[in-house]
């Protein structure tokens, strides 16, 4: 998102994040209703343009979205009214903002139940399990397959042992990919969880598993470098040969053998 949209989203989060936390288990209902708004915006270009149009009065857009969400939780309606009354750099940013708040609603529900860390671990396990499953990842992204079928596949893969919020997030990512890769959406949700837990997430790609001591030491080093607590998620990839590749948000630290060889080749070529 560009500056105006980023500011509008931040204002909405600042106002409603405490509301979602206070909603307890009912925050999930708010999240699901916001996803319904996202689906309506994605399904109708004219609706998206109208509700994001800065030339229309906030009152007119508020009335339209209120009718659209007839029967929804009043808190959902209030969030939607603020979103359509805000300014957006691009029409699509309105749906992106509603989606983020929808995920925040689901995760706030897990936080109130004390299961947020479990949801975080389960979502990361899904991304790790899909690392070598190219066909499954393609299926979960391909609009040629019905959304319902993609959702059912996720339910079969996860089974009944997963936390209900994990299943809800994973199913939503499959049913409504919104042009993103499946794992990208799960990683985005992981970032939202880290924000809720006031932690930074660092994904570490290593040639072999790290010991608990190594993981703790790396988390400590990264925490001191980034200035906040760090959750380290380790992905094992034998192709890196040796070393580590660490990514935290947009920042990447790559010290793998392959990276050093690539640097050497570039230097020789130069």
Automatic annotation (TrEMBL):
PROSITE patterns: ATPASE_DELTA. Signal peptide: none annotated. It is a peripheral membrane protein. It comes from the Bacteria. Keywords: ATP synthesis, Cell membrane, CF(1), Hydrogen ion transport, Ion transport, Membrane, Transport. Pfam families: OSCP. The keyword Ion transport applies. It is found in: Cell membrane; Membrane. Transmembrane segments: none annotated. Belongs to the ATPase delta chain family. F(1)F(0) ATP synthase produces ATP from ADP in the presence of a proton or sodium gradient. F-type ATPases consist of two structural domains, F(1) containing the extramembraneous catalytic core and F(0) containing the membrane proton channel, linked together by a central stalk and a peripheral stalk. During catalysis, ATP synthesis in the catalytic domain of F(1) is coupled via a rotary mechanism of the central stalk subunits to proton translocation. This protein is part of the stalk that links CF(0) to CF(1). It either transmits conformational changes from CF(0) to CF(1) or is implicated in proton conduction. This is ATP synthase subunit delta. It comes from Cellulomonas xiejunii.
């Amino acid at each position: 998102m560009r500056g105006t949209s980023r500011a509008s989203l931040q204002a909405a989060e600042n106002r409603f994040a405490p509301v979602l936390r206070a909603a307890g288990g009912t925050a999930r209902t708010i999240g699901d209703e916001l996803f319904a708004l996202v689906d309506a915006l994605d399904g109708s270009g004219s609706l998206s343009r109208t509700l994001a149009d800065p030339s229309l009065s906030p009152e007119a857009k508020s009335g339209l979205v209120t009718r659209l969400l007839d029967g929804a939780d009043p808190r959902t309606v209030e969030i939607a009214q603020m979103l359509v009354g805000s300014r957006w750099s691009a029409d699509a940013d309105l749906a992106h903002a509603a989606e983020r708040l929808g995920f925040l609603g689901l995760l706030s529900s897990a936080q109130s139940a004390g299961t947020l860390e479990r949801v975080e671990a389960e979502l990361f396990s899904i991304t790790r399990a899909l690392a070598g499953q190219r066909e499954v990842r393609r299926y979960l992204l391909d609009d040629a397959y019905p959304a319902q079928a993609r959702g059912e596949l996720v339910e079969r893969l996860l089974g009944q042992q997963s936390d209900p919020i994990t299943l809800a997030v994973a199913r939503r990512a499959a049913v409504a990919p919104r042009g993103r890769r499946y794992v990208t959406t799960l990683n985005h949700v992981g970032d939202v969880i880290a924000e809720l837990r006031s932690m930074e997430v660092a994904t570490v790609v290593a040639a072999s598993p790290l010991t608990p001591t190594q993981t703790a030491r790396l988390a400590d080093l990264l925490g001191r470098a980034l200035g906040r607590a760090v959750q380290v998620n380790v992905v094992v990839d034998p192709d890196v040969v040796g070393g580590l590749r660490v990514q935290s948000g947009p920042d990447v630290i790559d010290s793998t053998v392959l990276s050093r060889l690539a640097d050497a080749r570039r230097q020789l070529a130069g």
